[in-house]
Write a structure and sequence with these properties.
heterodimer; A: 333 residues; alpha/beta; Rossmann fold; three-stranded antiparallel sheet; 11 helices; 12 strands; B: 611 residues; Pyruvate-ferredoxin Oxidoreductase, domain 3; 4 domains; six-stranded mixed sheet; 20 helices; 36% helix
Chain lengths: 333, 611
């Protein structure tokens, strides 16, 4: 089928979707299936790879090639796949436990190598599939089955971690804002290199309302900040607030008192400012959504191919008999 | 000076781990190979890169056996012991046969070295008659090296680094070897460092001439070329051969080779070798850890490449879950274990065969994986190629077992030509059919559809699958059927491997020695001697351990006793007893070193005499 004739339905499988009713994963699946026809890649050239966890059932529901692998390793498996098959569009589906706890090592190494893959990190700040233990993104003091007196673990700030690993594309969206999510999926796909999209995803069974402040109509505009390249950082019900930099310190200002040109203008290419944005992580500042950072850097698979081409150019295409013979031989008559 | 023709010589080079002993040994090996001798080598070095100088812990050794006759092992006792210091002598004198020759560097026997080696001054072996009965050649290697380089611009430290060349030159003279190969080697190695090149050549020649002019040596020997089968030969080490086996596996199957690995002794040389051959489109990938290494290889295999990963025992422990995944997905994958002394970190630079049961059983759930082993350095080539064939044609992960002894050991190899290698046929799915990813043929092998094949999009995973469709299934009857089917698939590989042959001896005898892996040479030598003495013994050596060859049970019936020598506490023996209910007897050595053939021979003689 021609790629431009696809509809979202072409990306649905005959398998029954088995997430809990009301799970944020449904929205993500729908947006991904909606975006796929628009990326212009034949179905057979798309691969979804996941690890373990609720979110990792995702590939079973995508009518593309797919692998539901083992806990934490989707990033490593995708690295090998992309190294062997640079022609494929590779999507990694992972959760906060899968990518930041058991698979933390592979995540940071994938980011530094910059394989051209897309990571969708479903962050629900809880272990769902194992029925409700705290995760590496759960807040301190969180009471769960494994932390009856409250969690004493300091949580990861996933995007700050990814910036620390020299990720070339870092973005955040949420399950309850389909339009924004589709934009972010598009941007992830367009990025050449590893794109890391964190998706705030509600687990309505074990951690309901974890992101309520950002998703509920009553509070959303006060607590969220939507980033747009080249635009000043403005938020609030009536767009009446902005962010200004005082040295390296972001401060919330009222637009009554400060003019727009004094505000921080978002620049996706600015690493230092992107670092600061990932640190908008407490109660005092709104939570940013959108593309934090985007940079062009050589992808591992391209550098690898370049070395192969160079070796072929230098030595000629490998000849097995020459290899077997080596440089020193002798004859026995 | 006399010149004597000898059939076979065993030399042991020993010195500080920074003395360049391995290089000296390798150079002597390559020159000896080009001379046409049969040979076998055994490097023996400490885990530390530069262990404390002068101490027993820091002694690095290299053993070579070469001759005009067939050589199967690096030799039991040494004829010649070359020592660069007193610690090297102390650590290795037990290897030297009575009346053997010692070539020693007097400069390594001074007060300081004596103390480092744990000797008091009165205990100096040069003066306490403890070397009586040996032919000792003494020389001041360090001093002579420095004198020879008095005009060189190099610093003293750099000059001293050439002293191994003095010893090498000396030994070359003793055994009538040409310097040509080593000169060529040095000119390649130091092509950008003319001063270092000049110094090494000068010292090499000085050592050669010193042996010629000073009558310190115990004589000059001629070891004539060996009468080996006709053909073109080269020298080969096990890890190098394995790497070539994988390149051949990729070429013969038409797949691209992806090699994911994390550095670990003694497997890293496979990575080094493959990284050199990018012009064969080899994609070598040094991963962040053992798990990522195998995971990346699985990803590559899913994409239609030949995924290979190599490690040693501790790495296999980490890869276990991913091996289970590859088994469950039914994708081609080769897992190499270059075994070393265990458990835990164990003895990283020493050899052992103690990971066999790990390979056979070391996974959660019922996940049998074919296991293939190599028996000599050059055999690593064909065993690796065979591992690729089974992985690809039977859609399964395959274990390839080697060990530190054959991985680092060398021997002459009458290498094959590519036209004589088997072709490997991947079982690719065809487009425009209703593709069922887990529908099987008569071998129980599924069809392989890789991304990019239109209309064959499908999902695979580690969850239990419904028969044929591969959809997730928790059905209890389906699970039992799938577990049994996957096991049966591996069992049926036995129909596609050769029958077990006897290596030597008769179909019926008192004793069959059943070996696997690197014990081959020692067993072969022992059996050869016993057969020559008219004893009723035979030798079979297993390449295929999972599954066993179909005729193995029948073959075992021809003998009163089955003896299984292993460099472990008894592992193959458990599998043989379990499968064939025979009262096999073990011969086990767990010292981090290979068997000597006399250890096997004496054991068999005791058993024969007890009858």
């Amino acid at each position: 089928m021609e790629t431009n004739k696809y509809t979202a339905k072409d990306f649905a499988t005959d398998q029954e979707v088995r997430w809990c009713p009301g799970c944020g994963d449904y929205s993500i699946l729908k947006q991904v299936q909606t975006v796929m026809p628009e990326i212009g890649v034949p179905k057979e050239d798309i691969v979804f790879i996941s690890g373990i966890g609720c979110s990792s059932r995702f590939p079973y529901y995508m009518e593309t090639y797919g692998m539901h692998s083992i806990h934490g390793r989707a990033t490593a498996i995708a690295s090998g796949l992309k190294a062997a098959r640079p022609d494929l569009s590779v999507w990694i589906i992972t959760g906060d436990g899968d990518s930041l706890s058991i698979g933390g090592n592979h995540l940071i190494h994938l980011l530094r190598r910059n394989f051209d893959t897309n990571i969708l990190l479903f962050n629900n700040q809880i272990y769902g599939l194992t029925k409700g233990q705290y995760s590496p993104t759960s807040e301190e003091g969180k009471k769960t089955k494994s932390t009856p007196m409250g969690s004493i673990d300091h949580p990861f700030n996933p995007l700050a971690l990814c910036m620390g690993a020299d990720a070339t594309f870092v973005a955040r969206t949420m399950d309850r804002d389909p339009k924004h999510m589709r934009q972010m999926l598009q941007r992830s796909n367009e990025h050449k290199g590893t794109s890391l999209l964190e998706i705030y995803q509600n687990c309505n069974v074990f951690n309901d309302g974890a992101f309520f402040g950002y998703t509920d109509k009553a509070t959303k505009s006060e607590q969220t900040l939507f980033l747009e390249h080249g635009q000043p950082l403005i938020f609030g019900v009536n767009k009446e607030k902005g962010i200004k930099l005082d040295g390296f310190k972001p401060i919330v200002v009222s637009l009554d008192k400060v003019t727009e040109d004094e505000l921080w203008v978002h620049d996706e290419k600015n690493r230092v400012k992107a670092d600061l944005l990932t640190r908008f992580f407490g109660e005092d500042l709104p939570r940013p959504f959108g593309v934090f950072y985007s940079e062009e850097r050589t992808c591992y698979e391209d550098a690898l191919q370049a070395q192969i081409d160079q070796a072929v150019e230098l030595k000629g295409e490998g000849d097995l008999d020459t290899l077997l013979r080596g440089s020193n031989t002798w004859e026995i008559e | 000076m006399t010149q004597e023709t000898v059939e076979k010589v065993v030399i042991f080079f020993a010195g500080d781990s920074g003395d360049g002993i391995q290089l000296t040994g390798t150079q002597f090996t390559n020159t000896t190979a080009l001379h046409g001798n049969d040979l076998s080598t055994f490097p023996d070095f400490p885990a530390e890169i530069r262990a404390p100088q002068g101490t027993l812990a820091g002694v690095s050794g290299f053993q070579i056996s070469f001759g005009s006759t067939e050589i199967y092992t690096p030799g039991d006792e040494c004829d010649v012991l070359v020592v660069m210091n007193v610690a090297a002598l102390k650590a290795n004198i037990k290897r030297l046969k009575k009346g053997g020759a010692i070539i020693l560097n007097l400069d390594g026997f001074d007060k300081r070295n004596m103390k480092l080696a744990g000797f008091s001054e009165e205990q100096n072996p040069l003066f306490d008659n403890s070397l009586e009965g040996y032919q000792v050649s003494e020389m001041n290697v360090t001093k002579l090296t420095r004198e020879c380089l008095v005009d060189s611009v190099l610093g003293t430290k750099e000059k001293d680094r050439c002293k191994n060349m003095f010893v090498l030159g000396f030994i070359y003279w003793m055994y009538n070897r040409t310097l040509d190969h080593t000169i060529q080697f040095l000119s390649d190695k130091f092509k950008n460092k003319p001063d270092v090149f000049d110094a090494n050549i000068k010292v090499l020649k000085a050592g050669y001439n010193f042996a010629n002019t000073c009558e310190v040596s115990s004589g000059r020997f001629e070891v004539k070329p060996a009468k080996m089968a006709r053909g073109t030969y080269r020298n080969i080490m096990g890890n190098q051969a394995a790497a070539m086996g994988f390149i051949a596996g990729a070429q013969q199957s038409g797949l691209d080779l992806f090699y994911g690995s994390y550095p670990i002794t003694p497997a890293s040389d496979i990575l080094h070798e493959l990284a050199k051959h990018k012009n064969f489109k080899v994609r070598s990938f040094q991963a962040e850890d053992e798990i990522a290494a195998i995971s990346a290889a699985i990803g590559a295999s899913f994409g239609g490449a030949l995924g290979v990963t190599a490690t040693s025992g501790p790495g296999v422990a980490l890869k276990g879950e991913a091996i289970g995944l590859a088994f469950m997905l039914e994708l081609p994958l080769v897992i190499v274990n270059v075994q070393r002394g265990g458990p835990s970190t164990g003895l990283p630079t020493k050899t052992e065969q103690a990971d066999l049961l790990q390979a056979v059983y070391g996974r959660n759930g019922e996940a049998p994986v074919p296991v293939i082993s190599a028996s000599t350095p050059s055999d690593c080539f064909s065993a690796a190629l065979e591992a690729c064939r089974i992985a690809i044609e039977h859609m399964t992960p395959v274990f390839f077992l080697s060990d530190g002894y054959i991985a680092n050991g060398a021997e002459p190899w009458c290498f094959p030509q590519s036209k004589d290698l088997p072709s490997i046929k991947p079982k690719m799915a065809t487009a425009n059919t209703d593709y069922l990813p887990y529908k099987r043929d008569e071998k129980l092998v599924r069809n392989w559809a890789v991304p990019g094949m239109q209309g064959l999009e499908h999902r695979v995973g580690g969850l239990e699958k419904e028969n044929e469709t591969g959809n997730v299934s928790y059905d209890s009857d389906n699970h039992q059927m799938m577990v049994k089917t996957r096991a049966e698939k591996v069992e049926r590989i036995a129909d596609f491997i050769p029958d077990q042959q006897l290596d030597s001896g008769a179909q019926q005898a008192k004793i069959l020695v059943l070996g696997w892996g690197s014990t081959y040479g020692a067993i072969k030598s022992a059996i050869k001697e016993l057969l020559a003495e008219g004893k009723s013994v035979a030798h079979a050596h297993l390449r295929y351990i999972v599954p066993f060859p179909n005729n193995l049970g029948k073959l075992l019936e021809g003998y009163d006793h089955i003896v299984i020598p292993e460099i472990n506490n008894g592992q193959l023996i458990k599998l043989i007893r379990d499968k064939y209910l025979v009262d096999a007897k073990g011969l086990n050595k767990i010292k981090g070193t290979p068997f000597q053939s006399r250890e096997i021979k004496n054991h068999l003689l005791d058993l024969l005499n007890g009858d």
